[in-house]
């Protein structure tokens, strides 16, 4: 089975092309395969795997599995990786794509100069803000600066779904914050029946945020596109930022814009291929 190792700001994935190579992976085998490939000591090493598939409703279909074998609805960095892959491997000549995901149709736009992709703009769609859409336990309505207790500490959380759940927490010093302690506790908090991604955000200025992320099923990663989108939405809802900002992540920067005209969130950033190879284990 041939694969490509790719990353978006250090958020790395093993990409498996199920269109240009004749492979059939049984559904029951996919969680185990994700765990094996993602293992950084006994496998290839990644934050998950991405399957490139044909679609009946869009140009392509993307499935994404976390290192623990769970399937994710969407991934902002993953979509950019996907778009870069299908372009560079000549599966399409289109620069504006429709990609089917469990979160719906996502529309990335490739910025190409002299035949090379310089960046990808992704239309992430409208954020979902009602508690039941996250989903999160509790009464109907939006979750903005709401108290949540974990490991004996009180946090003010804002919940946003970008097709997958996010819990955003504002902190004074994100680099000094114990993400590895509180991230897993909040990910699996009883308030979130499907678990949640957790973003810890420091406001640098009205158009500048610094973020660390604890991803559901993966742990802390260097970047998260849906998390960056959710963080900007949460910051604006709390009066902490404008609708457009640069998000500094450990792997690099993303530009995020929450468009007031159509309510859609757009993220702009890179995606790179690192190497290709062949997986021969059964």
Name the descriptors.
282 residues, alpha+beta, Diaminopimelate Epimerase, Chain A, domain 1, 2 domains
What does this structure look like?
The chain has 282 residues and is of the alpha+beta class. The chain has two domains: 122 residues, Diaminopimelate Epimerase, Chain A, domain 1 (Roll); 133 residues, Diaminopimelate Epimerase, Chain A, domain 1, CATH 3.10.310. Helices cover 16% and strands 40% of the residues. Strand 3 and strand 4 form a beta hairpin. The longest helix has 13 residues. The mean pLDDT is 97.
Short characterization:
With 282 residues, the chain is α+β, with helices and mostly antiparallel strands. It is built from 4 helices and 18 strands.
The name of the CATH architecture of the largest domain is: Roll
- In round numbers, the mean pLDDT is 97
Q: What is the CATH superfamily of the largest domain? A: Diaminopimelate Epimerase, Chain A, domain 1
Helix content: 10-25%
Strand count: 18
CATH topology of the largest domain: Diaminopimelate Epimerase, Chain A, domain 1
Number of domains: 2
Main beta sheet: strand number and arrangement?
Answer: 18 strands, mixed
Order of helices and strands: EEHEEEHEEEEEEHEEEHEEEE
What's the shape? globular
